[in-house]
Structures are given as C-alpha cells and as structure tokens.
Specification:
The complex is a heterodimer.
Chain A (H helix, E strand, L loop, with lengths): L1 H14 L1 H38 L5 E5 L6 H8 L6 E18 L2 E9 L11 E5 L8 E5 H7 L6 E6 L2 E12 L11 E5 L1 H7 L7 E8 L6 H9 L6 E5 H44 L1 H10 L3 H30 L1 H10 L10 H27 L3 H7 L10 H8 L4 H8 L5 H33 L10 E4 L5 H10 L3 E14 L18 E9 L10 E2 L7 E4 L1 H7 L6 E6 L2 E10 L9 E5 H5 L9 E6 L5 H11 L5 E4 L5 H38 L1 H10 L3 H43 L11 H18 L1 H8 L3 H5 L3
Parallel strand pairs in A: 3-8, 5-7, 13-18, 15-17
Antiparallel strand pairs in A: 1-9, 1-10, 2-3, 2-6, 2-9, 4-7, 5-8, 6-7, 11-19, 11-20, 12-13, 12-16, 12-19, 14-17, 15-18, 16-17
Chain B lengths: L6 E12 L2 E13 L4 E5 L6 H8 L7 E6 L2 E2 L5 H11 E4 L11 H11 L4 H14 L15 H13 L5 E5 L7 H16 L3 E6 L2 H4 L4 E6 L2 E7 H4 L2 H12 L1
Parallel strand pairs in B: 3-8, 3-9, 6-7, 7-8
Antiparallel strand pairs in B: 1-2, 1-4, 4-5, 9-10
The chains are: A alpha+beta, B alpha/beta.
Amino acid sequence: MQRAIITKALADLRGHRSQNLLIFSILAAAAATLTLSLVVRASTDDPWERAFDEANGAHVTFNSWIEDDGDAVADLVRIAELDGVANANGPFPGFTGASVIVDGDKYDLSVSALSSELPEVSQPLITDGRWLESGTPETVIDRALARDLNIAVGDTISIQSPAGMTDVTVAGLAISPWRGPYPDSNARVYVDETTLATIEPDRTRWFWSMSVRATNPDQLGPLVREAFSLFPGATVVAEDWQDVRDDVAFWNEINAVFLGIFSLFALVAAGLIVANIISARVLAQFRDIGLLKAVGFTPGQVTLLFLIEHLAIALAASLAGIAIGTLAAPLFTRRLAESMATTTMPAFDLEASALVLAAVLLSVALFTLLPAWRGGRISTVRAITTGFAPASDTPSRLARLATRLGLGPAISLGVKDAFARPWRATITVISLLLTIVTVTISLGLIESVTHVFDNPALQGEPFDLIIERDRLSDEQAQELLASTSGIDSFHTRTQVMALLSGPAQSTDQEPGVPALLPSFTLRVAGGDVANAGYVVPEGRMFAAPGEAVAASGLFEEVGLRVGDTLDVEINGALTTLTIVGRYLDDDDDGSIAMTGVETVRAVVPTIEPDAYLVNSASDADDLAIESALLQGSGYDFDIWTRVDEEEGDEEAQTLKTVMFGLSGVLLAIGTINLVATTMLGVRERMRDYGIYRAIGLTPGQVILTVASNVGLLALIAAVVGIPLGLLTFRVMFEVVASDLFGAAPEWFRNPPVWQMALILPGAVAIAAIASALPARQAARLQVARVLHWD
Amino acid sequence: MQHEFILDARGLTRTYASGDVQVQALRGVDLALEPGSFTAIMGPSGCGKSTLLHLLGGLDRPTGGEIHLTGRRVDGLSEAKWSVLRRREIGFVFQFFNLIGNLTAADNVELPALLVGTSHGEARRRCQGLLDELGIGDKAGTIPARLSGGQQQRVALARALVNRPTLLLADEPTGNLDSESARDVLALLQRLHEGGQTILLVTHDARVASNADRVITMRDGLIIDDTRLSESGDSSELLSRLIRLEV
C-alpha cells in the first residue's frame, strides 16, 4: 500500500507543476528569511564572545591620566589586590594624540605600549604577521584599519603626533575585542615603550591602563567603586566590557530582532498560502479522492498522501531557502565579521539550519493536516457521482448589498463569491493583513529612523562640530572659537564618572528606589548650554548650580522622577544633584546625565573641558569653519564635523534596506497568495463564468467580476490592516526599541499620512494585478465547451 | 422593421482540432427561421445540433459561413458585441439549467435585465411577473439547490425571457427532467410560441421534437431532413417518422 501512496504522490507532484512551483517558491522565501534572521542573530554574539574569551579580555579597563610619579603607577597596581579581581595586568602606557594620514584623510589612533611578551589579560589576537619584537621601531595595528587603508604586513606607516612623524614597520595585524571596534572607536596600534617615547616624548601626556578580569563580571559596581576610591582627585575612567559588546552588536541586534519578527510573519504567511492551495487542491480532486477510496484507500491514507506530497515540497524548499539565507547573511554581518576577524565567506550554521528545517516542515504539516483530513472524509459516492464539491447553499447577501449600492451586475457577481469558500477567503485576508502590517511597520520604522538621523539633537548631539585641544589652554581655545566667523554658539564638555552614594530621593515622599547601577557618565557642560539645542521633553534644562538633567535610561535604571535628588561622588568628592528635567541622549543607552560646570567645579576645582561643542550658523560652511580653526590653532585642534559623519547614515541605510527587503518578501508572498486564490477560484467557477457570458456579460465585465472578487478581500485586509499595523508598530517600538535599545519615546514617528493613504488603493491595485491573468482566462473561456463540461 | 427571417444562417461550418485530428462538427448548414416559429433540431448524439445552436447564439465561432440576425450580419462580431447582442436579443435555456448557485431564483432571473440597464425596481417587477406566469412565483427567494429540476428549468426559462428576446434558444431543455416536469416545460414553450415567441430547440428526443411546428433532422454535421408540421399530415405518422430518424 505504501508503494501505491508513493506512486500517486509522485504522479500528483508531476501533474501539478505550476502549483507545486508556487508552493516551493513561497516556502523557500520564508525559509531564507528565517535562516537570515537566525544567522545574523548568531553573528552578533558568537564571534564576539569567542574572540573576547580567546583574548582573555578585560571586564573593566581603568584608564588614568595621572602623572608618572611612581606612586601613581603604584596606585593603579593596587587595583590588582582588590577583592573581586580575578586577574589583572598593567598599568601599560599609551597616547591618544596620534594619527595616521592616508590619501589626505586623517585616522586617529590609540597607541598602546606593550612589551614583546603578550599580556595575560587583554591579549591582542594576532591575525596576520607576528607580535612585536623588542628593539625595533615596529607596530602591530588594528586589522580593520589595515583592511580599510590597504595596509599589509611589512608596510611602513608614518604615525603623526605633535612631536612629528614616526615611521614604523607593520609587523602584524591584530584585533582587540575588549575595545569598541574601529571605526566606532579609534583604531588601536601597539608599539613598545621606546617607540611610544619617540611618538610622544612628554610622559605627562601619556595615559595608563590597568586591565582587570573580575570574579563577578556581571556586577562590576562594587569593584569600580573601590578602585575609584584609591584615586581621590585623580581622573580615572572605567571601560565596561558589556558596553563594548552592546556597541559592537547594536545594529546587528536591530537587524536580527526585526528580521526575526518579520521572518515569523513570512513563515505564517507562507503557511497560510500552503493551506489555501491544499484545500483548493482537495476540492479540485474531489472525484479523484472518491475513486481512490473506491479502490481501497482509507481516509487516513488519503490524508497521508497529501501530507507526503507537501512535505516533499517543503523539504526541497527548506534546503533551497537555507542555502539562500546562508549566502545572503554576510551582506548584514560583513562589518562585524571584519572587526571580529571571522571569515566573510558564508558560514553554514548547522543549528540554525536544523531549526529552520524543523520550523518549515512543522508549519507545512500543521497547515496541511486539516484540509487533508477533510479530503479523506469526503463521501465516496457523492465524490464519484457529482464530481465536484457541493456549492454554497445559502443566498449571497453580499450580492444583494452590492446591487442595492448600485455597483452594477459585474461587481455584484464578483463580490458575491468573495466568501463562497470562507476558509480560503479568511486565509487570503490574513495573508494580506500580514503584508499590510509589515509594510506599515516598515514605513513607521523608516520614518522614525530618518527622523532621528535628521535631528541629531534627538540623540543628544545638537552640535555641528566637536573640537579637542592639545597644547592650547582653555582660555585660548575659547577665545579662538568666539572670534571665528560662522560659529553661532559653543559650549564646553567634560565627561566624568559619577558614583551613586545612595538611593535617589524622591520628591513625593515615597521611599527612593535603590539604584540598579552604581555609576554613570556625567556630562559637565559650561558656556552657552541654553542655546545648544538639547531636547528636554520633560521639565527644563538646568539653570542654577546643583541642578542637572538626566536621560531616559537613567530615569528607568534609578527610578527617577523630575524633582528627585541624587547624592553622587565625583572624583572622591560628594555632591547633590537635583534632577530638573529629562533630556534626550542615547549614549550609554540613555544612562547618562548632564550638569553645569559650576556644580562640579564647586567640588572638583581642577576640572577642565575635554571638548568644545560648536553650533554653526545656519548658512555657514562647516568645512570652512574647520579649516579656519585648524589654521587659527596652529593645527593644535582635533576637529570632528557632522558633515563627515557617514557611519550613522550607513547603518540607517542598512536598516532601511532590511525593512524594504522584508516588506518586499511579504508583499511578494501576499501577491502570490492572491494569484493562487484567484486562479483556483476561477478554475472552480468556470461554469459560472460560462453562464455569465451566456446571459450577456462581456469579456471585460467578466474580468471586472474576477477582479472585484479578490479586490474586496484586499479592501477588507487594508481597512483592518492599517490600524492594526499602526498599533503593532507602536507596541513594538515601546517594547522592543525602548527596552532593548534605549530609544526615547520622542523618537517615535508614525508613517506619513500620504504613505498610509496609498496603502488602501495600493492593496486594491495589487489585487487587480494579481487577478489579471486568471481574469483573462475567465474572460476568454470557450463558453460552449465550459457549459457542456460536467 | 419586420424581416422575412429572424435568423438566417448560410453555409455554416465548424471544425475542431482534437489532438492531431480535425473534426468537422458542421459541414455546411443553411437554416432560416421565420418570426414566431417553433423549430426543433433533432439528431443523435454528435450530429452537430448543439454546435449549431451555440453558433447561432454566439457562444462559439463558425469556421465558415454567415449568420444574420434580424437582417444584421453577426457572425464576425467581437465577443463583447456578441455579449451585448445576446443579452438583448437572445435567451438561452440549457439542459443542466446553469443557474447561479448562490443567487436566489429572483436574483438569477433579473440578472440579464440589470445587464441591459433596467432599474432594479423594474427588473424585480418583471421578474416576479414571469415567475408567477410560470407557476413558481412563491419560489422567488429560494436558491436553486432547494428547487426541483422542473422548477429550476422554469427559473432558467424566466431568466431567458426577462428581456423579451427576439429568439429563444433551448439546448435539450427537458434532457435532465422527469417526464412530468418535461411535459410541463414543453407546455410552457408551446404557450410562449402561441404568444409569438420565436423558439429554436435542440433535442435528441423525437417526442420533444414533435411539439414544434418544424423539425429539422441532422446527422454527421449536415441537415438531412426538414419537415413542417402543416406538410406532414397525421401527427402520429410524423412521430413515427421522427422516431425512425432518431435511430
């Protein structure tokens, strides 16, 4: 009997080629999207985790600019003796004022001096060439930088610094996974201490790093607090490994999350189409099923027959989809792969592939089972004698309604059959719904991302230029900025680490919530902050000493309300900050605050600006301002201009591409479903179309009948789908974007009204296009043959 | 303007391709119908009678020949123009009724009226009148699946007549009915004929054919006999002759 089933299954597969191809294409598309999602998701964690572990990366790196007076270095060494330290190396010297110039472009470097013996903690991973040998002016540079600038092992590069140019030979390429990757952070290059002294002879301008592996890497607060207490009054910065991982994976996380959600949509949509086609197949093979049962197939075997046929297609489609998804994944993971020294060739992920295969086969089995079971239950006698599935036995109210609305006989005949097969109509509407919801979410996401990137103030970056000085004094720098044409305003910034010394004090007399984090970045701003353009959606900007504003992340982490006070420790000195407003800043996922320089100077008198943040006039040329400042400062200034910023745009473009791509996939699936539904419906109603022609409908009217049938379903899907899509987007934004990426509520933008207004006619137009071919078939049928066909 | 013939077909041929074989369903048929006539075309299965009916109603295209309807040549009309012509001038009744399953009897009947632009109210009025006349006025709101064969055929007849067509074409109208229903339908056709309706009916049944004024017999795509009732003399003799022709 198994042979009989297989023989029949093979015959069906050969006999319904176009339908089978349709099912194959849809399932392959869904499988490819799901594979892509899983592989991209895996790429965010696995390579970074592996590289970090291999490098024995530091969980926290302490960087200090204290003078090398022996005691200070010894102070850093004392960190190694603290409770909570599993292993530590350092302190190692370094310098951040160097750069390399290639083809006229300047690339800032972070130069770190290590010996020829690789450190135990934060050990650079050599990918090409070798590590440093003592006694020679050579360097090991960041692999991503080398790839970007086409620098190979053996090349000589010139490192520029205030002391002049230093030529060094590239001995090797390496990655440093405990640091933010280039170009998000300055590229790390390694030299020995002698070479460092050549690059920057003034040791007081060096920074010192202590790399620490913690016993409890997920709870670094107590360790950091204790380490800071060793250096009262000194400037020490701690780099947290989890911040690095979050930065590294940020955009891939976004892509992976949205890919994941939409690939599920695609799988469900594909499953619905499969269910649609299978149920129609059952109807079309009514007589065949009757004959099968007449010759001895049991109902269970009829069900098994359908299952085998469709699982065979699903298997082939899954394998094809997995291959496509695996091949396409590097398009999304390229940058991350580069920085993590993984191969850019497609990497087959066995676990992800197995999951996709199981998901597709299970979905198809599920969606096949019900119609297949119904096929097995068809009455044998009725199937053989009648030859077709029983027609509806209730009068169509839709037809009557359409006639009363004056839509004309052609449209009335079309809409009356829209729900003649309720199961199929429902599936089609749901499939279209998924498409419309996806499109709506994509449009909303693109609008929100565009809104954020077009308005840098929403990310806490309302300025056009960032200037750092080297040897010029603060007074000289500010004088130059004030006198340079084209500058509208500027303010100063210093970043310090603030430690919470107690729970937040709430103004409404409820007990303060204990802080979830012990420390956060505090921006210290001086000068014309009021005109800088920071966005303060709640409360107001600070205006008096002791006041501060905090970003959304900090509000959530500490349980803040506007009006609360925070007791903080800055460089060992205690002070109280009153939070007078919530401002937009997405750095550190929004766990950040800003206060005035007068507030901090009261407890840390030696504080000086790290940077000057400049707002240019609306008609000013930022590059001209940059050039004037460079000349005016004697090239002492290091300047970043927003017009040079491309990376954010690139990531936003990638996200837009992903969204368009996914919408395209769902649109294709929805359209294919419409085509399939219409083709099947026309085939079943050939006789009706013959009657219509016999009583006087023109071929054009028959086309209109077919188009209105599917057009009504599209209309329903659009009317329900648009508000559902808007609601889903809002929920997704609040849950996914806000919780995972610290997105502020002010980032949210609904899709533009004009785009939404196009969805409804767009859906109906797609329905018309999808029905074109089947409608033409119906219009051109041979009436005499059809009416004599029974 | 009154024409001598409602329908005038000359030299009609129809050839089908069946695989590699060319099948000549009609091999040169001439047929002219006078206004108000009741003509039956009979012949065995495969003789071409249904093919001829379909050509005359524009449901199929002749390979050769001409068709004139009320003096106008129509064989070369486009499908759209045929459809418009058909809804106004020709009513069709089929063996398997061919009603639309999820429309009520009234909805089925008024459909052609709506197609020619009749207002909904007028169409409904005309429809109810026809259904009453055909004895099924109480079935207006019933769907075809709940009607007997005879009732369904009456609905089909009402649909064919709702626009007062010049010509009524019936393809084996009693072929799917029991004898009582068949008699009822034939009686209705007679009544319509007496009211001036021109009818062309196709049947393989001699007894059905004998209800007409004129019986045309076909075999192998050609007309082999054309008998008018007034010329035939004794009707029982006519019936006997027809039965002989039937076999």
